[in-house]
Design a protein that fits this description.
Elements: E1 2-5, H1 12-21, E2 35-38, E3 45-48, H2 51-57, H3 63-79, H4 83-102, H5 107-124, E4 130-131, H6 132-139, H7 243-251, H8 255-275, E5 285-291, E6 299-302, E7 304-308, H9 310-318, E8 324-329, H10 364-376, E9 381-384, H11 390-398, E10 402-404, H12 409-419, E11 436-443, E12 458-464, E13 470-476, H13 482-502, E14 504-507, H14 511-525, H15 534-538, H16 541-569, H17 576-592, H18 596-605, E15 627-629, H19 630-648, E16 652-655, H20 660-664, E17 672-674
Helix pairs in contact: 1-3, 1-4, 2-3, 3-4, 3-19, 4-16, 4-19, 5-14, 5-16, 5-19, 6-7, 7-8, 8-13, 14-16, 14-18, 16-17, 17-18
Length: 675
């Protein structure tokens, strides 16, 4: 066992946090710089622009790093956004606290003053919140691509293109063959007619223009199986209206995900009205990455799209125009699988009794018995939440049964609701009431109607009449970019979900941080404590008089460096020094006008808070506005400061295990006392 003093003057844990957090500085703002992660074992690389994946990929051997990873993963799991902000603030606040320690400021004073300062800022910025019903007015600026602003035009009416039917071998008539970035008039495949000239025709697949009684959400089999092309011009004809304003503002420039999200919202809006809810149903959305196609082929498809083997694809071809009997398995489909109890605790991983690195080759007796059970109930399709035994998969294919493993729980629930299937943990529990009916399967087709054979894995689509499930098919020709595209889509989806859940958003682009910085400066100049917390009242009065200004300025320095980095990453400043000068200028202007919040809101309405004099048209109103989530942003701040203060209050690092010789031979051996 080894013992190391944290050393309050230079606090090793805070230095480690600052060093780790500096790796994600370029992730701030919409102009993120990507990073490559290379696996030393497999030599495979992937492209990232996510702080969660960056920290999760590092080999964190110190306690501070592991706490940082836990904090970041908790933020990412709950909100899917705000992680880069959290990481950056952890770094700058760690450095700020170390500076306070070097000035001999007591730890209790740092903890109390910073905590109360942050709480006061969170109360102050409430005046900037924009209610969702007011977002359209705050963000509405005429955009050339939408000519329907005087009509009853909103986000849910954006999808106007005719849609291809499930199982149809013919391409959709309105599938767009125009490449992304092509400014020529979009042309419908198979016709030389510009898409804009078709808008006056009768639309048969829109609930706003279709013939009464012919809803495209019919629960009859075969009627509800269209797919939406998220990249076509019809996806953004009215993207500037209604919820489209909010989606674009929350996208922070990610136009591809916006168009896909428009397709999802257009579909879910009608179902949401039936439920009396305006929320985005995140549980009703899945993603599938298809390699080998341009990104312009990304689209939204009803049902469940997944990748299958060539042998499974052969089985699917035999399922053409057939309705399938479906079974749902809530666990692993292996001989050794044992569940941990029907009332499963959260965050517990299932453990196999006899792990087999070869994938679990099962005995013939078990295989025959399981297949006999499936065949006795005439099951064609099995969706499994966990892993599937390789032998069982092979035997199932030979028997004409399609088995899909690693299916998300939400997908199982959607198929259960649509087909009447009830999930079982073991096949031995199966009875007639557990088997669902009405599922369908086919090979997934690109928007030009072609079924794809990409070699090892082939995309397939599984659906059922009336299923409340959409799959976002993300296509790319670069394998290293697949996970990046998936992360970007989920980030935007959750931003919109949380915005609707909160019922309000913050103006983005640094508006909230600028008001926090202005408020902190005002607090630092005022006598007395920044809040009414009991811990603050218990601090000695000389401490408040001597340390209040220093500690609050240290807290504010985090937001100032955040704004400076934001300006540098968006090329509005060539250096942090220039960016800091610009931030100071805005702070002085805000203070001079008497109401910093009013000044910041007015600047936001003009198109940006931190506009510089070097902008080509500094006095012109721009159409680029961004918004941020309320709960995600404030929770990222609190988690960042809580982590820094937690590490600050640790006084030692005790290392146990077999690292004695490694520590003895390291340059840091003189810092440890071996017990």
């Amino acid at each position: 066992m080894a013992f190391r003093d944290a050393n309050a003057r230079r606090h090793i844990g805070l230095q480690q946090l600052s060093s780790l957090a500096s790796t994600g500085r370029t992730f701030l703002g919409p102009m993120k710089l990507h990073k490559f992660i290379v696996d030393e074992i497999t030599n495979q690389s992937s492209l990232i622009c996510s702080a969660a994946r960056l920290i999760g990929s590092l080999d964190l051997t110190n306690a501070a790093g592991q706490l940082l990873n836990e904090t970041i993963q908790a933020q990412n799991k709950e909100f899917k956004t705000g992680v880069s902000t959290l990481l950056f603030l952890v770094g700058v606040w760690s450095s700020a606290v170390v500076e306070c320690l070097q000035q001999n400021i007591p730890v209790p004073a740092i903890v109390s003053l910073m905590s109360e300062g942050l709480s006061s800022c969170c109360e102050r910025i409430q005046c900037l919140q924009i209610p969702i019903p007011d977002v359209k007015r705050e963000l509405s600026i005429p955009i050339n691509s939408c000519s329907h602003q005087g009509d009853d035009c909103n986000f849910k009416k954006c999808q106007v293109s005719p849609l291809a039917g499930f199982g149809s071998a013919k391409p959709a008539l309105a599938s767009v063959v125009k490449a992304v970035g092509d400014k020529s008039p979009p042309v419908l495949s198979g016709r030389g007619v510009p898409a804009s000239s078709c808008l006056t025709r009768k639309l048969t697949h829109s609930r706003h223009f279709s013939t009464p009684g012919k809803s495209r959400f019919s629960s009859q089999q075969g009627n509800f199986q269209p797919y939406w092309d998220g990249m076509g011009p019809s996806a953004d004809l009215c993207g500037c209206c209604g919820l489209g304003h909010l989606a674009v503002a929350l996208s922070h420039g990610n136009q591809t995900s916006v168009k896909l999200l428009q397709s999802i919202a257009a579909h879910q809006q009608e179902r949401a009205e039936c439920r009396g809810s305006s929320q985005i149903n995140v549980a009703g959305v899945a993603t599938c990455c298809v390699l080998g196609l341009p990104e312009s082929y990304s689209c939204v498809s009803p049902g469940f799209v997944t990748l299958v083997s060539p042998e499974q694809a052969t089985v699917i071809k035999h399922f053409a125009d057939k309705t399938l009997r479906v079974l749902l398995v809530d666990g692993d489909l292996t001989e050794q699988y044992r569940h941990l109890g029907f009332n499963r605790p959260r965050n517990v991983r299932t453990i196999l009794e006899h792990p087999n690195p070869q994938g679990g080759r099962a005995g013939d007796t078990w295989l025959r018995r399981m297949l006999d059970i499936l065949m006795s109930f005439e099951v064609n399709l099995v969706l499994v939440k966990g892993n599937v035994c390789e032998d069982f998969m092979e035997r199932s294919v030979s028997s004409g049964i399609l088995v899909i493993g690693c299916v998300a729980r939400d997908v199982l629930r959607a198929f259960g609701a649509a087909t009447g299937a009830q999930a079982v943990t073991y096949l031995s529990q199966l009875d007639a009431s557990c088997v669902g009916n009405g599922a369908q399967a086919e090979l997934w087709k690109a928007r030009d109607g072609r079924a794809l054979d990409l070699g090892e894995l082939i995309p397939a689509r599984i659906g059922a009449g009336g299923i409340d499930l959409l799959t976002v098919v993300l296509t790319t020709a670069l394998p290293s970019k697949a996970q990046l595209l998936e992360e970007q889509f989920w980030t935007l989806l959750y931003r919109l979900h949380h915005a609707l859940k909160d019922g309000k958003v913050f103006p983005g682009g640094g508006a909230v941080e600028l008001l926090c910085l202005s408020h902190i400066q005002a607090l630092a100049e005022q006598p007395g404590p920044p809040g009414n917390d009991k811990a603050m009242r218990e601090l000695p009065s000389p401490w408040l008089a001597e340390y209040k200004s220093i500690v609050l300025q240290a807290l504010g320095s985090g937001w100032k460096r955040y704004l400076s980095m934001l300006l540098c990453n968006t090329a509005r400043a060539s250096s942090e020094l220039e960016a800091g000068t610009l931030v100071d200028h805005h702070l002085q202007t805000a203070a001079a006008c008497g109401s910093p919040s009013a000044y910041i809101l007015e600047e936001f309405r003009r198109g940006g808070v931190l506009r510089s004099g070097s902008d080509p048209f500094p006095d012109q109103v721009t159409d680029v506005k961004v918004c941020d989530n309320v709960a995600a942003k404030t929770e990222a701040w609190r988690r960042a400061l809580d982590l820094v203060l937690l590490v600050l209050q640790t006084d030692a690092e005790i290392i146990t295990g077999s690292r004695r010789s490694q520590i003895l031979n390291s340059p840091m051996s003189n810092e440890f006392m071996f017990l």
